[in-house]
């Protein structure tokens, strides 16, 4: 009987320990797909905006991702696996079938105000992110598409007060997600204050690096139903680069529907005059049914200082000839869990 009681207590202890460990582990994720047709160009002539993701016509898959998060008292880790064209584009992996590591990192809360993170995490630059469920617009901006998507390295987050934070990072160079083959490293910093963020990034610019970028990301609640997001950035790599700004006004008309506009100006700078630039306007609706988000979207990009229809994308007219504008309609569906 004593052996039976001892064995029962052992299994009970193991069961309680397993339940406690399971409670520290959470699984989340999303799946998205879309339909897209070009309003000013044939769908079969290779027309594209040239920004990241959602570049197909007809019915297309965005991505599916599963995020496993372990949260201990002072330590934890995240494994974010993605598949599909959006996941492949975000990780520069051309294989859209196999699982792809989007994020994989461990963290240690050294103190109440200091956290160290080691591994690969999505970028701190820009207003938009890789996962479509976290963006208001389904298509992406030129600013987001031109910067890094992820970083591989070590970062330290400091909570300076309830409303002020500081992050410092040393990583592999721009979008070198796995290893650095050149012995070079990049440095990043973020100062956050009252929901506004000033971001800095630097690598040598060699071997396809990004160089220097300064980025402001923030937003303001102008009323209970009206929000204005803001993003502006300047990049320089040995005298050439890009700059631009985007505004994101969004209005909630009900608990389930919002409508928002992204107006963006993006330009290249460097040697020569009249370098190409683009003004992009994207109008997006967002309707939520439980965990499903439905996003109808109309986008119009207009080039300036550019005559042949080639910038980052491929702007053609109804006859397939180069032109200075491109418009499309997109209907996306995103489920989160």
Strand fraction: over 45%
CATH class: Mainly Beta
Overall pLDDT level: 89
Structural class by SSE content:
mainly beta
How many helical stretches? 3
Coarse shape: globular
Q: Give me the strand/helix succession.
A: HEEEHEEHEEEEEEEEEEE
- Report, as a whole number of angstroms, the end-to-end distance: 47 Å
Q: Give me the CATH superfamily.
A: Porin
CATH topology: Porin
Count of discrete structural domains: 1
Q: Tell me the strand order in the biggest sheet.
A: 1-2-3-4-5-6-7-8-9-10-11-12-13-14-15-16
Unreliable sequence segments: 6-14
Biggest sheet descriptor:
16 strands, antiparallel, barrel
Helix content: 10-25%
The CATH architecture name reads: Beta Barrel
Compute the CA-based radius of gyration.
23 Å
Number of strands: 16
Overview of this protein structure:
The structure is a single chain. It is globular and about 60 Å long. The protein has helices at 2-23, 85-91, 142-146, and strands at residues 25-38, 58-71, 75-83, 100-111, 114-122, 150-159, 164-171, 186-193, 196-202, 212-221, 226-236, 241-252, 257-269, 277-289, 292-304, 325-336. The chain has one domain: Beta Barrel (Porin). It has a 16-stranded antiparallel barrel. The protein has 337 residues and is mainly beta. Residues 1-18 form the signal peptide.
In short:
This protein has 337 residues and is mostly beta strands.
Q: What keywords describe this structure?
A:
16 strands; 337 residues; mainly beta; Porin; single chain
């Amino acid at each position: 009987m004593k052996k039976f009681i001892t064995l029962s207590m052992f299994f009970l202890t193991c069961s309680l320990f397993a339940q406690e460990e399971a409670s520290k582990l959470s699984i989340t994720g999303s799946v998205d797909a879309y339909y897209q047709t070009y309003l000013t160009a044939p769908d079969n002539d290779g027309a594209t905006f040239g920004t990241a993701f959602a570049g197909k016509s007809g019915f297309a898959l965005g991505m599916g991702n599963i995020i496993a998060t372990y949260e201990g008292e002072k330590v934890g880790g995240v494994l974010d696996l993605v598949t599909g064209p959006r996941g492949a584009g975000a990780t520069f992996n051309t294989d859209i079938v196999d699982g792809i590591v989007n994020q994989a990192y461990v963290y240690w809360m050294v103190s109440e105000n200091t956290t160290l993170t080691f591994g690969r995490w999505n970028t701190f630059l820009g207003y938009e992110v890789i996962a479509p469920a976290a963006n208001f617009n389904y298509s992406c901006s030129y600013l987001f598409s031109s910067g890094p998507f992820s970083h591989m390295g070590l970062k330290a987050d400091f909570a300076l007060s309830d409303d002020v934070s500081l992050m410092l990072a040393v990583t592999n160079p721009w979008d070198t997600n796995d290893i650095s083959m050149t012995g070079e490293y990049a440095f990043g910093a973020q100062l956050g204050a009252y929901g506004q963020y000033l971001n800095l990034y630097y690598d040598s610019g060699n071997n396809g690096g990004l160089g220097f970028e300064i980025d402001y990301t923030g937003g303001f609640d102008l009323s209970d139903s009206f929000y204005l997001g803001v993003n502006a950035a300047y990049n320089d790599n040995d005298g050439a680069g890009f700059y631009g700004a985007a505004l994101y006004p969004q209005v909630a008309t009900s608990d389930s529907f919002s409508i928002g506009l992204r107006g963006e100006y993006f330009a290249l700078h460097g040697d020569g005059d009249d370098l190409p630039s683009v003004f992009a306007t994207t109008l997006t609706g967002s309707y939520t049914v439980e965990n499903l988000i439905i996003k109808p979207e109309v986008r119009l990009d207009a080039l300036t200082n550019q005559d042949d229809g080639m910038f980052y994308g491929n702007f053609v007219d109804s006859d397939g000839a180069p032109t200075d504008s491109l418009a499309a309609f997109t209907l996306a569906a995103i489920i989160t869990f």
